[in-house]
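Entry 14: structure prediction run for GntR family transcriptional regulator. Input pasted below.
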Amino acid sequence: MTDAEDSSGEGVYRRLRADVVLARLAPGQKLGLDALRQVYGTSIGTLREALNRLASEGLIAAEGQRGFTVAPVSEKDFREIADLRLLLECHALVPAFAAGDLEWEGRVVGAHHKLAVLERRLLAGEPADAALWKRYDREFHHALIETCGSAALLETCTAAYDRYLRYQMVAVLFRGTVAAEQHAALLDCALRRDAASACRVLEAHVAGCVDHVVRTGALLPFAGGRPAARPLEAAPPARLRARA
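Run finished. Output tokens:
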């Protein structure tokens, strides 16, 4: 991406969105326009447009004359987003599995392979970039439903997944063997075209993640809606730690 493209309206929107979803911008963090202008190298007007788009997606909170903040997190909101993700993806799995062909199988297997390799490294105690882990996770779950036949459903699933993903990135915690085994089970269900079993696995997968994040207290530092003060700048990639 060139500097010109990166400072365009669409480019700034994508960069801001990625920084919010990947928790580089912390929940509750104040987004001053002057500071953002320096970081993203664009105009105040372009920033306002991008922030308003993100506010419509529930990722940014617009506070009238007080400006913008990154949307806060809470246990209640996480559970609601998780329920929405399950509702949408389970609905998409049925037509996707029915329509999936050999080419689709290849994409699902390939997406799972990349995710499984990274999971094996994590289980061996090797460090990993959290953003790369979640990129592979996102690609695998998307591959499972990409043949559902509805562009609108896929778009809505993606939006719900990204809001769910933000909570995972705040926690930055890999659940270990159980998560890897559930991904393998989802692959097996896809190859057998067993959407009903896939939905049950997905329900356990998502519920386990939500319960683990809540139990470990990863959201507590943001419970008041404001993170500890820190400068607005590009953050280093989060590093994953495997569950003990």
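Notes: The beta strands are 30-31, 60-62, 68-70, 173-174, 241-242. Will compare against the previous run tomorrow.
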